[in-house]
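Q: Given only this backbone (410 positions), what sequence would you predict?
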């Protein structure tokens, strides 16, 4: 089982590195540096406006640290066929899962340290804690995350539906962390650290009472598939991921908008593209997620050049992710019997892209105006820059990109 876990871990890391190379290309790294610099500058300016005793600051600290505890799930690397092929080895799976717990704890610990490091200036300015108390806060976060992962470990076994274990995971994900973190921020860091240590030790020591019980294979496989689906969804923001299976959902609230399309031959592809993008969970979700992320960045960033760069960058990312949808119906035999030419297909796709990118441009423009209402240069730059980029992207870049894609497909 030791060799099995190592082999699967290596294969997992190789797969992650393949996607990370696609995500962190030169353009994204450059954009990431701009975003980190802009957010760091905004964070620094915001700290200058704060002071000790700000009433809402402890609530923000508890909220951010509570979210950080939720990040990082137990990685088991189990696969669907394991239910059959590893069932005879079930008695040896405890060692396999223990290695997965240790690996997950290292990654989760690094996340806790990173968020703790980012929050240190805010905590220092608003609560005036000592150096020792800051270390105690980090220890509390690590202990809470250890407990969180161990409860997730216990979830892989067939245990009684007790309130403390599987019957109410909300207790360990929300209630206990809120109480301990709240006590640390409002009352005593030492008491919270001791409580977190005791809870973690009790959780780890209780493992001996259930680690030899039968495994809940269905839950374990479902949890791992859910975890990997979340990872693939992130990568799917930047590149095509074969493991992401599309799903369709009708969105009745868009019927009024989509119903305005006239049912005439030249609008065939306009109807297909608009309805398919709206109902495809992956494509519409990707569109909404990128728009929300871009809007959040713009709300927290103030300046002249940086908001313009971010607007143009996210418009390009959203449009670029939509381009592969042009070929969505190529494998549908019935589409090829329609008495229409590719010229109508291209025009329809460009029209859909224009409406989608224009909507994003309006949202980004509102965010920039709300934050930089006194900076005429930035507002004008965003409006003119977005208009030029949308025109150049849709009517110059997209036809060439699709033509190259058609050649590659042939």
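A: Predicted residues:
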């Amino acid at each position: 089982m030791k060799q099995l876990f190592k082999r699967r871990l290596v294969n997992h890391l190789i797969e992650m590195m393949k996607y990370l190379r696609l995500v962190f290309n030169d353009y994204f790294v450059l954009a990431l540096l701009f975003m980190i610099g802009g957010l760091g500058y905004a964070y620094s300016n915001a700290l200058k406006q704060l002071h000790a005793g700000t009433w809402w600051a402890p609530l923000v600290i508890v909220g951010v640290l509570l979210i950080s505890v939720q990040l990082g799930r137990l990685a088991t690397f189990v696969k669907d066929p394991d239910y059959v092929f590893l069932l005879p080895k079930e008695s040896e799976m405890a060692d396999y899962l223990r290695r997965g717990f240790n690996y997950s704890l290292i990654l989760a610990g690094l996340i806790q340290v990173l968020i703790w490091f980012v929050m240190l200036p805010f905590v220092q300015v608003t609560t005036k804690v000592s150096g020792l108390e800051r270390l105690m806060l980090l220890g509390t976060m690590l202990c809470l995350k250890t407990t969180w992962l161990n409860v997730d470990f216990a979830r892989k076994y067939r245990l009684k539906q007790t309130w403390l274990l599987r019957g109410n995971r909300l207790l360990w994900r929300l209630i206990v962390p809120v109480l301990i973190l709240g006590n640390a921020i409002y009352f005593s860091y030492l008491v919270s650290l001791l409580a977190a240590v005791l809870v973690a030790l009790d959780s780890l020591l209780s493992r001996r009472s259930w680690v030899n019980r039968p495994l809940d294979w269905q839950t374990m496989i479902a949890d791992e598939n859910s975890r990997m689906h979340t990872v693939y969804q992130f990568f799917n923001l930047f590149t095509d991921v074969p493991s992401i299976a599309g799903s369709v959902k009708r969105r009745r609230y868009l019927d009024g908008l989509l119903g305005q399309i006239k049912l005439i031959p030249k609008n065939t592809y306009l109807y297909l593209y608009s309805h398919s993008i709206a109902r495809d969970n992956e494509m519409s979700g990707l569109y909404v997620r990128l728009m929300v992320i871009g809007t959040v960045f713009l709300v927290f960033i103030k300046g002249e050049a940086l908001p313009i760069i971010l607007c143009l960058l996210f418009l390009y990312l959203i449009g670029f992710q939509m381009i592969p949808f042009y070929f969505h119906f190529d494998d549908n035999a019935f589409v090829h019997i329609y008495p229409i030419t590719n010229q109508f297909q291209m025009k329809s796709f460009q029209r859909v892209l224009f409406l989608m990118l224009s909507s994003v441009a309006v949202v980004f423009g509102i965010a920039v105006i709300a934050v930089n209402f006194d900076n005429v240069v930035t507002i004008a730059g965003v409006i003119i820059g977005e208009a030029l980029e949308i025109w150049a992207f849709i009517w110059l870049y997209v036809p060439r990109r699709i033509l190259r894609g058609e050649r590659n497909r042939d």
